[in-house]
Write a structure and sequence with these properties.
- It is a single chain.
- The protein is an alpha+beta fold and 68 residues long.
- It has a domain of 46 residues.
- It is built from three helices and four strands, in the order ββαββαα.
- It has a two-stranded antiparallel sheet with strand order 1-2. A two-stranded antiparallel sheet has the order 3-4.
- The chain is elongated, with a radius of gyration of 12 Å.
- The structure holds zinc ion (ZN).
- Zinc ion binds next to loops.
Length: 68
């Protein structure tokens, strides 16, 4: 998953493992966003839960209840 820093425009990749970890953390804390630090300028970029889900491995997504 490619993240683009909104501050400096730096593009960096979020690995699958990190996406899974992020989603787990969001569920535990019931937060809507995951904070990821830009490796270039250290700005915190917020990644929404929906964005993470799109890139998460399938089995991680299916654990969640559908919203309908
Ligand atoms: Zn940056």
């Amino acid at each position: 998953m490619q993240i683009r820093c909104y501050r400096c425009g730096w593009s960096f990749a979020l690995k699958r493992d990190e996406i899974v970890f992020a989603l787990e953390g969001l569920e535990e804390s019931d937060a809507a966003h995951y904070d990821v630090r830009c490796p270039s300028c250290r700005q915190t970029n917020k990644i929404s839960r929906d964005q993470l889900k799109k890139f998460a491995p399938r089995e991680e997504v299916e654990k969640e209840k559908p919203e309908e």
